[in-house]
Structures are given as structure tokens and as C-alpha cells.
UniProtKB/TrEMBL annotation:
This is Mycofactocin system glycosyltransferase. SUPFAM superfamilies: Nucleotide-diphospho-sugar transferases. Keywords: Glycosyltransferase, Transferase. Gene3D superfamilies: Spore Coat Polysaccharide Biosynthesis Protein SpsA, Chain A (3.90.550.10). GO terms for molecular function: glycosyltransferase activity. NCBIfam families: mycofact_glyco. Belongs to the glycosyltransferase 2 family. InterPro entries: Glyco_trans_2-like, MftF, Nucleotide-diphossugar_trans. Residues 82-199 form the Glycosyltransferase 2-like domain. Pathway: Cell wall biogenesis; cell wall polysaccharide biosynthesis.
């Protein structure tokens, strides 16, 4: 059995239950009709594992992101977890990172610091084991050097500019009650250390590239969360094999997650647990990091194909969303035809159930909204060099660009309610990431990382 006896999984509150037996939700979106026997095993939307049948039902619901595990049991013992911290200089940040980890066993890997003595003093003051590298190998290689020194069943990777409590890491290990879970990560939020944070630091606090939302998720290409940042990860030591791909200086965390998923492992995201990442303290450092994230897209596309696509949409929804963005006289008829086609297509695929027509309309509207959002992001972020090139020559592009800017405001408020909209910071963020994406594509001589894909061809990409 996959789960221990007594393990519980609860239907998510964003899953629609129709006619009692039809579940609609999850990510990717799916409709699952429960048998009467399965329905009888659900008590108040919760299944408790008592035998092989309930184990299989819990697994199906959790893997489809239709249910979340109920994590009320203890995690592993502190002695079973080792924390690996790769660092190059940054002694002050390393001191904060080690201070927050309490008595957990810690391995500091000095990746050929310019001042190795400063790093050694901090590591020794906290009683951490120090691995000193004489050649700079990058974050992936440094983490792997630490991984080779781990002697416990579980390992956490924490970057030197991240502070996370020992209790948070131990809480994350509760996910390992699921025997198939190999890796789990918390919500990584950004925090400015400056006495008077500047505009770009405030933007990063509100809209960090490392923060992946507030809903728990099974992580895989195509799901609501398709990757995890290596800023903070907890895994089963033996399941990670050789660890990160050392030839990759960026995107190595995405690559690890996708390789684990391809190998049949389960990877989870748990936003109830939070780690804190220091914001960059200069504009050049902030934009440089965004640019670097973008450059990794091409390498990931070479290794994983269409999983790294910047958008996922059907041809009919793409045409419908584009018609709405350009706002011409013919836009409404085209959009109406696209919506009608989408509704009929969904209706054919949905099970026979009362309210099927209404459900098809709701799902079509939801899909159209997501497609409009993706197309706006393509124009403003991933494809902005083309947008700048074509806008002076095309009224359609200009109209779509104006609509995309409005969509961007709405998306920002939906994703980060109550925060201030910072248009300059958003545009600079988009331009830095998009420039890196195009630079990587040119260097790789491949446009794969720039092209959208149809559902079923691969997975979602990290959007930097």
C-alpha cells in the first residue's frame, strides 16, 4: 500500500461536486465520476485509508489534485534530517540561515569563496560541518557535494540567502507519509532586509518569482504548479540519486523536479509552510537575476522538449482570446463562434449528468479567461521583443498590447490582492526575463522555449 493505515485525504474546497458523484477540478482540470462504492467511502468529503481499496481511492484523488492530504501527524525525527547550504561568500546571510535552523545537522558547502576564512568562521561558530571546494562549480555542483556527505534518510537544501525555521522543514517531512513522495517544497516569499526598502524590493516582496501561489499541489508539468525553486527543498536522500545536473547554472531545480516526475516519483508543494528569501539589494542584481532565469528556458527545452512552453492553449481558444484582445468589429462574431465550439466540445466530453450544459459553459469561460491571461503574458513578457518590433507597424498589435496592459492590472490584483500595482517594476521584470529567454533561444539556436503548445504535449513552464 502507498499510504499508512489511518492516512486521510480531503476533497479540496475548489473542486465542484455535481449530482453528488461528479468531481470537477484539479490540475490539469478533469472530471471524475465516482462509483457508488467510492462515494460510500467518502465521509464528509474525506477518505481514510483502511485497506487497499481506500488506499487506491486516496491516491487517485490526491494525484489528480482533487484532494489534499490531511497532515496532522508528526514529521521525521530531527536526527533523520540534514540541511545542505551551498554558499559563496555571503557570511552575514549564512549566519542568519544557520541561526534559524536550530540544532538540525547542517552541512555548509563553500563553493570556492573569495574569502573562505569568513565562511569557515561562521560555519564553525554554528557547529556546522564544512565542505570546502577549491573550484567554483555553481549551485548545483555545491548542493551535490553536500548531498554526497549526507548520512541521514532525508535532506533539505536551503540557499544561504534563505531563512527557514527548523520546525518548518520538519513539518514538510510529514508529506513522506506518502511512500511515493520524493521531494517537497514550501512557499518561498521574499523579504527586504534594507532599512528603507526601495520600489523594486517592495515589488519582489509582493510578487516574487519564487512564490508559486497559496494552493497545495502535486507538482508536475501541466499542473497548477509545474516546478519548484531550489531555494528551499526537502527530499528523500536515496530517491534523489546523483542530485542536480551540475552542467546547469540555472534551471537545475526545474530539471530535477521534471526528472523525478518522469521517473514516477511524486513531488509536492505545501504553501502552508513558508521560507523567506532575501530580496536583491540593487536594481542591477534584481534584473540580472530575472535575466538569468530567462536564459534557462532554452536549456530546459533541449532537455525536456515542450514541457517548458510559455503557454498552453487549444487552437480554438487561442483564436478566441486573440479576437477579444484586438477588439475589432469582427471580434465578437469570432469570439462567439469560438465559445460555441468550446462549449460543444466540452459537453461531448463531460459525463451525462444534470446541469451538464451549464457546467460546459462555466468551464469554457474559465478556459477562455486563462487563455486571455496567457496571451497577454506572451505579448508583455515572453515575446516583448517581437511586440516592440511589430507594434509600430500593426494597429492590431497595438490594440492587443493596450488590452494586455489592462489584463495585467487585473491579474496582478487577483494574484496579489491588496498589494500596490507597480507598472514600472512589472515591465522591467517582464523585459529582463523575456530578454534572457530570447538570449537563451538564440544561443541554443532553437525557438522551442518560445512556442506555446497544445494541452497534452508537455507541461507548464516556470515564468521566472
Amino acid at each position: 500500500m502507498r499510504y499508512p493505515i489511518g492516512f486521510r485525504a480531503r476533497i479540496r474546497d475548489d473542486v465542484r461536486r455535481i449530482d453528488g458523484r461528479l468531481l470537477v477540478g484539479g490540475s490539469p482540470l478533469r472530471a471524475v465520476r465516482l462509483t457508488r462504492a467510492a462515494l460510500a467511502l467518502l465521509a464528509d468529503g474525506e477518505v481514510t485509508v483502511v485497506d487497499a481499496v481506500t488506499d487506491a481511492l486516496a491516491a487517485r484523488l490526491v494525484d489528480g489534485n482533487l484532494a489534499d492530504p490531511v497532515l496532522d501527524g508528526p514529521g521525521v525525527e530531527p536526527a533523520e534530517l540534514t540541511v545542505v547550504i551551498p554558499v559563496r561568500d555571503r557570511p552575514e546571510q549564512l549566519d542568519r540561515a544557520l541561526s534559524s535552523l536550530g540544532a538540525l545537522h547542517r552541512i555548509v558547502v563553500d563553493d570556492a569563496s573569495l574569502d573562505p576564512e569568513a565562511v569557515a568562521r561562521v560555519a564553525h561558530r554554528h557547529g556546522a560541518h564544512l565542505v570546502q571546494l577549491t573550484r567554483n562549480v555553481g549551485p548545483a555542483g555545491a548542493r551535490n557535494a553536500g548531498l554526497r556527505a549526507v548520512r541521514t534518510r532525508f535532506v533539505a537544501f536551503v540557499d544561504s540567502d534563505v531563512t527557514v525555521e527548523a520546525s518548518t522543514l520538519l513539518n514538510l517531512t510529514r508529506h513522506f507519509a506518502d511512500s511515493r513522495v520524493a521531494l517537497v517544497a514550501p512557499l518561498v516569499r521574499s523579504r527586504a532586509r534594507s532599512r528603507e526598502p526601495r520600489w523594486f524590493e517592495r515589488f519582489d516582496e509582493d510578487d516574487s518569482s519564487l512564490a508559486l501561489g497559496t494552493r497545495a499541489c502535486v507538482v508536475r508539468p501541466g499542473a497548477a504548479v509545474g516546478w519548484l525553486p531550489s531555494a528551499c527543498l526537502v527530499g528523500r536522500t536515496e530517491r534523489l540519486g546523483a542530485g542536480f545536473e551540475e552542467t546547469m547554472r540555472v534551471g537545475e531545480d526545474v530539471d530535477l523536479v521534471w526528472r523525478l516526475v518522469e521517473a514516477g516519483e511524486v513531488v509536492r508543494y505545501d504553501p502552508e509552510q513558508v521560507a523567506w528569501h532575501d530580496t536583491r539589494t540593487t536594481v542591477s542584481g534584481w534584473l540580472g537575476r530575472k535575466y538569468l532565469y530567462g536564459t534557462g528556458g532554452a536549456d530546459l527545452a533541449v532537455r525536456h522538449g515542450r514541457k517548458g512552453a510559455p503557454a498552453v492553449m487549444t487552437a480554438s481558444m487561442a483564436a478566441t482570446a486573440a479576437a477579444l484582445l484586438v477588439r475589432r468589429r469582427w471580434s465578437l462574431p469570432v469570439a462567439a463562434a469560438g465559445i460555441a465550439y468550446g462549449v460543444l466540445s466540452l459537453r461531448r466530453r463531460l459525463p451525462e449528468t444534470p446541469g451538464r450544459d451549464r457546467l460546459a459553459v462555466q468551464l469554457c469561460a474559465q478556459g477562455l479567461g486563462w487563455t486571455v491571461r496567457q496571451e497577454a503574458a506572451l505579448l508583455l513578457r515572453h515575446w516583448w521583443p517581437l511586440t516592440v518590433l511589430l507594434a509600430p507597424r500593426s494597429a492590431l498589435i497595438r490594440r492587443a498590447l493596450a488590452a494586455s496592459l489592462v489584463v495585467d492590472v487585473v491579474v496582478a490584483q487577483v494574484d496579489n490582492p491588496g498589494t500596490r500595482y507597480r507598472p514600472l517594476a512589472r515591465r522591467l521584470d517582464d523585459m529582463a526575463y523575456g530578454a534572457g529567454l530570447w538570449a537563451g533561444a538564440i544561443r541554443a539556436r532553437s525557438v522551442t522555449c518560445l512556442l506555446p503548445r497544445r494541452p497534452g504535449q508537455g507541461g507548464t513552464s516556470p515564468n521566472g
